[in-house]
Structure formats: C-alpha cells, structure tokens
Design brief:
By secondary structure, the protein is α/β, with parallel strands linked by helices. It is built from 20 helices and 14 strands.
C-alpha cells in the first residue's frame, strides 16, 4: 500500500501525525507546503492525502484540484479551522473526501484516515478492474447478440437493466457498457443493494450531512456523488427496500437528490445501470417492486444467457480461466483432455461463469498433474453428474458420516451399514427382476442369507419374485 501524505506548514501538526501514524503502522510522508507535495506528485502517488487548506504559496484547495484532476479516485482530506467553513464547502465541491476541523482529536483523525484508506483501496480495485478486465468472452450466437447490443449502446446515455441468473457476468457487462460509453473517463461505481443493511443503504447511495443521525460526525458523499459524470451500477436492484425505491425513482425522474439530513438539492449527472437475477415483472405484480420504477429502469433491457444456453463457450471460458489462475499463482497452466472438456461442456453449471472460474482456480491449486482427466475433476461435480467412481461415492459417504457425527448421532455403523446393504440388495434384485438366487450369486451371498437380510431390512421383495 502506498503512503499517506501529510501536508501542513505547521511543524507541530506534522509531528502529531507522524507519531500517530507510526503507532498505527501506517506508512506516511510529510510535506511543509503544497508546492513541495505537488512536485513529488509527478513521480509518486500517495494512497491518501491529508492537507491543510491555508498555507504559504499554493493552497490546499489548489493542490486538491490538481490532484483530483490527475487521480480522481484518490481521497483527499482537507484540514481547516472552524472559522474557515466557506473554504471547506469549496473543498467538497472540488472533490474532497472529508474535512478535518482544527483543533482535532488524534484518534478521530486516524480513524478518518483509515476509512479513507479503505475507500482508496476499493476505488483502486475498481479502476484496475476497468483498465485490465478482458473483453467479455463468448462465441455463441446468444453472446454475439449481447455484444451487438453493447455496441449499439456505445454512444448512449440511456438507463440499462441487465437481467440474468447469478454468475452470468452482469457486472462485467455493466463495466463494458461504461468503458465503451462517452463517460468512460469518469468513475464507474458499483454497489450491491442486497449486501448493505437497509438502514445504511440510503446514506450509502445519497450520502449524509453532518449530524444527520447518531454517529454522523462529518458530511459524507454518497455513491451518486462519487459517480458524478460517470456510471452508477446498482446490482441486485430487485432487493431494494420500498422507501428507497421511491427515492431512486425521484432521482431518475427529475435528476436531483438530497443527502440524508440535507436541504440542498444536488444534481445527479450519472448514468444508472441496474441488474437483477429476479423477474422484476413478477415482483411488480406481487407488489414487491414499484411499477413506475421498473419502467424507468427498463428503458433498455439486456438479458444475459445462462451458460447452459451457450455450451459451446464452455471450453473457451475454461482455457481462459485456467490461464488466468496460472498467471495469478505463478504456476504452469493446466490442460484438460478432450474427454474432460466434453464432460464439462455437458454440465449445466447452475453458478454459470462464476462457477466455471472457481472450478478452474480449484483445478490450478488442487489437481496433481498438468494434464487433467475426468477423474481429476472435483468429486462432487462428477457425483452430481452421475459419474460414479470409487473416489466420489466414498467421498459422498464420508461427507454423510461427518454430518452425522456433527449432529451427535450414535450407532453410525449400524445405521449406515443397514443403508448400504439395503441399497446393494435392492439394486441387485431390480437387476435380476426379483430373482433371489441370481441376486444372491451377484452379491456373493447364500440364498438363505439373502432371504434373512431381506426380512431384517424390511424389504418387501417377495412380490413378483422368481426363484
């Protein structure tokens, strides 16, 4: 992680930060002027900047504007005196992450820096993903249609609703729509509305004013402001609470929103792309989703096909993800035999592309050799597909025994032994059409022994039996 830059002409302030950050094991660099820091910015990049707003020479506000122009995702915390509130407002308009009033509590300052570091790391991941993510893979006709729609939308600002099962790559498509749009140079901000508690989601989306609720010690910009000029991706929109559906509808309708506790309308210059794995039309009929919001979001709908509808892409995806996992782990790329590829291409993959990616990572880590056969695939995959081998049925039995032990059951040998014998006898009798002599020979038992076990196990095998 890159260091935190502290910029202040007051030596005592720099000393306080040096001691506090050293104690917290946070790397830092200190500067006595904005000019000095900006010169360094030409060759180095900080993770977070903490700068006083009034200093001799270039001001912290001027540094903020220059830094945000070069690195729009880098959090900048502005320090200001209580009497300098107008400058603080100007700083926020320039893109400041937060402001730190002087005199400040050291612990509060460190906590603020930690939050800024976390935000910076999240934004770095987003930027890296946008810059390095490969084009979406797919040669199947269903995916060619997806590519055609993305191309048609390349110069559009229209709202898009992406539908598809979990793991089909909805966020990847959203990033592609952003990357090929006129907003590509601006932020792409993604938020999973189902992953954030209801009481926090409103603040996460729209931000909040200082004092808006207990714990809101500072003003905070929400995702709509962070995505200004760019794209806001709302994943799992079908799970959005009803009251927030109303607020989102208002933003999409008139283009303005309010921070929580705020009274000043803020212009939302954002393209919204929403995604869901649910049937929103059905949720509208059930009264779980606003019909007017559905129509606002559903300007253009883009359906992503599940993997079972594009099986010809499975080998392509497997080769891609195996190569990717090998690069990440610094190992030789695994190779699948034709039989293994054919076997995997026949699977439904309920988790879609995400499941294939996880499988390839598992193979890269766990498969012993470079060349992978069907027998080297995860036992649960082969078991679920009906490929019965000694390894996977034993593994399944071991799992059942482990679960029984975990539940505190006793007499496990008798229970599973009886189930095992029952399965063998039932299948043998089914194979012989109920003829006990033949079944006993196949099982390696005497006829009387087989008859006794049938009685002990309570099997009604007499009907239609032929001896």
């Amino acid at each position: 992680m890159k260091p935190v830059w502290i910029i202040d002409d007051d030596r005592s302030i720099r000393w306080v930060f040096e001691k506090a950050l050293t104690r917290e094991n946070i790397a830092y660099k200190t500067f006595s002027s904005a000019d000095e820091a900006f010169r360094m910015l030409a060759t180095e990049t900080p993770q977070v900047v903490v700068s006083d707003i009034r200093m001799p020479g270039e001001s912290g506000l001027e540094l903020l504007l220059k830094a945000k122009a070069q690195y729009p995702h880098m959090p900048v915390i502005i320090m200001t005196a209580y009497s300098d509130l107008e400058s603080a407002v100007a700083a926020f308009q320039g893109g400041a992450y937060e402001y730190l009033p002087k005199p400040f509590d050291v612990d509060h300052a460190v906590e603020l820096i930690r939050r800024a570091l976390e935000e910076s790391m999240r934004q770095s991941d987003v930027v890296e993903a946008v810059e390095t993510a490969p084009e979406i893979l797919g040669q199947a006709p269903a995916m060619q249609e997806v590519f055609r729609i993305i191309g048609r939308l390349s110069q559009s600002h229209a709202t898009v609703l992406i539908t598809g099962e979990s793991g089909t790559g909805k966020e990847l498509v959203a990033r592609a729509l952003h990357r090929h749009s006129p907003r590509a140079a601006k932020p792409f901000i993604a938020i999973n509305t189902a992953a954030i508690p209801k009481d926090l989601l409103e603040s996460e989306l729209f931000g909040h004013e200082r004092g808006a609720f207990t714990g809101a010690q500072n003003m905070r910009r929400g995702r709509f402001e962070q995505a200004d000029g760019g794209t806001l991706f709302l994943d799992e929109i079908g799970d959005m609470p009803a009251d927030l559906q109303t607020r989102l509808l208002r933003v999409l309708s008139d283009g303005y929103f309010y921070r929580v506790g705020g009274h000043q309308p803020i212009k939302a210059n954002v393209r919204v792309i929403a995604a869901t794995h649910q049937d929103l039309d059905a949720r509208v009929k059930q009264g779980l989703f606003r019909e007017d919001l559905f129509h606002r979001l559903n300007v253009i709908q883009l359906r992503l096909p599940p993997l079972r509808e594009r099986r010809e892409d499975i080998p392509l995806l497997i080769r891609h993800f195996l190569a990717k996992s090998a690069r990440e782990l610094g190992v030789e790329t695994k190779r699948l035999s034709e039989a293994a590829l054919k076997f995997l291409s026949a699977q439904d993959f309920s988790g879609n592309v995400r499941q294939v990616e996880n499988l390839c990572h598992w193979l890269t880590v766990m498969a012993a050799g470079v060349n992978i056969e069907v027998k080297d695939l995860p036992s649960e995959l082969r078991f679920d597909a009906g490929v019965v081998t000694e390894r996977n049925w034993v593994s399944a039995l071991e799992r059942e025994v482990t679960n029984a032990l975990g539940r505190g059951e006793s007499g496990i040998l008798d229970i599973f032994g009886a189930q095992f014998e029952k399965a063998l006898i039932t299948r043998a009798l089914a194979h012989t059409g109920g003829r006990r002599i033949e079944a006993a020979q196949l099982l390696g038992l005497g006829r009387n022994t087989l008859t006794r076990k049938i009685q002990e196990l309570g099997l009604d095998a007499d009907k239609g039996a032929e001896d």
